[in-house]
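To the wet lab folks,

You asked to see what we're planning to order before we commit. Fair enough. Below is the target structure as tokens, and below that is the sequence we designed to fit it. If anything looks off to you, flag it before the synthesis order goes out.
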């Protein structure tokens, strides 16, 4: 089975097992589905004029993307292989309405963004295995109004889907642009794994001397450690466009640096299936902890319900037999009570009046029991549980602590919506299903990928 078939099989199976469960907990399933829909993605982002479009043209082997010294691109361009026929462009409005492509959710950003997304279908070997996304350059002084859509959120959405994010800098602006800072600091860590992000300094041929280069490189490293908040400096790939550079000057050390970057980008395709599993694993764990919290609340509410039920039934049965006796003692009627009739053996001769009081008492008590549970006990339990919501889940590891921190508000939102009826709407079962998926299906998928990798490397 090839990678595509495996992916399709995974998509069908996962959808069947998880879609309804995600909906039950008001969680977005679309992200999982999107990541399994299409081909591997490489997202190229970075400062304006950092050489993104130039690098992409080199990878494709043709001058497809416009390049220029001033901010050039203001659109996201998805470059992918054509369908073997003529090369063509697809506008954003078509892309976001095509359910076979993973871009439908960009629709909600509105017209302004849609008119700034294009797909170019080209015949180029590298695009057979992956799609490359060129992006608008990051700028210093922009606001949401300038772009007409929330750039950081859109970037985050593309980043979440990408199997590799290439973040580019050039020696002239080594990491000081506001939008790059924002992206590295907040957007990217939240949306993507660290190992999916690589840093690149391009246009290195423009450094006149080694000292010039060292200064830029050092500045970038310093800025990077400030931005990532990490002590260690990540690997920084180096590149330059050979057709723009003085080849004699570059010949000695730099070509192999470029090769390393190109290999990394071409190799991204192979990781898509692992990334799909990684994302799936993460998101199922997220829904799992929400489900655990909801289930624990349902368990507590069910326990209280049975307490109420027992007391209510006891009172209802007592009033069934003694209610009319009490009324008679106070008001002097009815003439015949149920108990006295049973004892006298005359129940059969006064059917209606005899059972009227007992049944009224019985059902009134049951109704009072239900109302006091649903209007008083259930909301009170919910308030108390939400006041100490972290006690709803077991937080025995740092991983679970972090997971809970991320998902607590989702769990609370779910619990807030529950009513008494939900005690019987299958929450415990669905929580068990999610657990079973994590323990069995996930493991099987990993095994399958592992064995496929081993057999293909033999
Ligand atoms: N000397 C030299 N010039 C380069 C190199 N890479 C890009 N350039 C030039 O730098 C300018 C910017 O390059 P682009 O590829 O347009 O940069 P970009 O990141 O796509 O810019 P935006 O689309 O505005 O975000 C262009 O004039 C390129 O010709 C390089 O490695 N060496
Ligand atoms: Mg560009």
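Sequence we intend to order:
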């Amino acid at each position: 089975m090839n990678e595509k078939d495996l992916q399709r099989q995974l998509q069908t199976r996962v959808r069947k097992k998880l879609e309804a469960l995600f909906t039950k907990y008001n969680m977005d399933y679309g992200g999982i589905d999107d990541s399994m829909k299409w081909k591997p993605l490489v997202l190229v982002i970075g400062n304006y004029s950092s050489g993104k479009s130039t690098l992409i043209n080199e990878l494709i082997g043709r001058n497809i993307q416009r390049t220029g010294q001033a901010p050039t691109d203001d659109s996201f361009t998805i470059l992918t292989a054509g369908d073997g026929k003529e090369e063509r462009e697809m506008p954003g409005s078509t892309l976001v309405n095509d359910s076979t492509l993973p871009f439908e959710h960009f629709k909600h950003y509105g017209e302004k963004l849609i008119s700034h997304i294009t797909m170019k279908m080209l015949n180029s070997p590298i695009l057979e295995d992956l799609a490359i996304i060129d992006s608008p350059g990051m700028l210093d002084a922009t606001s949401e109004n300038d772009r007409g859509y929330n750039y950081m959120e859109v970037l985050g959405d593309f980043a979440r889907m990408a199997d590799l994010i290439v973040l580019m800098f050039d020696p002239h602006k080594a990491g000081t642009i506001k939008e790059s800072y924002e992206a590295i600091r907040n957007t990217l860590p939240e949306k993507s794994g660290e190992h999916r992000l690589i840093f690149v300094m391009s246009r290195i041929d423009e450094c006149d001397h080694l000292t010039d280069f060292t200064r830029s490189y050092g500045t970038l490293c310093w800025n990077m450690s400030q931005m990532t908040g990490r002590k260690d400096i990540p690997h920084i790939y180096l590149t330059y466009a050979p057709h723009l550079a003085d080849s004699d000057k570059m010949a000695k050390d730099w070509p192999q640096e470029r090769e390393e970057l190109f290999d990394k980008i071409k190799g991204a395709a192979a990781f898509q299936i692992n990334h799909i599993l990684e994302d799936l694993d993460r998101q199922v764990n997220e829904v799992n902890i929400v489900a655990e919290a909801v289930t624990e609340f349902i368990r507590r509410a069910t326990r209280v319900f049975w307490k109420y039920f027992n007391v209510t039934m006891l009172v209802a049965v007592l009033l069934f037999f003694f209610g009319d006796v009490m009324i008679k003692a106070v008001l002097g009627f009815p003439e015949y009570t149920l108990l006295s009739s049973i004892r006298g053996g005359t129940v059969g001769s006064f059917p209606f009046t005899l059972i009227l009081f007992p049944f009224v008492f019985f059902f009134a008590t049951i109704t009072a029991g239900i109302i006091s549970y649903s209007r008083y006990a259930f909301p009170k339990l919910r308030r108390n549980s939400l006041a100490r919501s972290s006690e709803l889940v077991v937080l025995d590891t740092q991983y679970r602590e972090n997971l809970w921190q991320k998902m607590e508000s989702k769990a609370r939102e779910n619990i807030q919506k529950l009513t008494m009826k939900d005690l019987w709407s299958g929450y415990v079962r669905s929580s068990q299903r999610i657990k079973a998926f994590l323990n069995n299906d996930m493991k099987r998928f990993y095994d399958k990928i592992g064995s496929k990798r081993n057999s293909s490397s033999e």
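Structural context that might help your review: Residues 52-53, 65, 72-73, 134 surround magnesium ion (ligand 2) (CB under 6 Å). The longest strand covers residues 41-46.

Thanks,
Computational group
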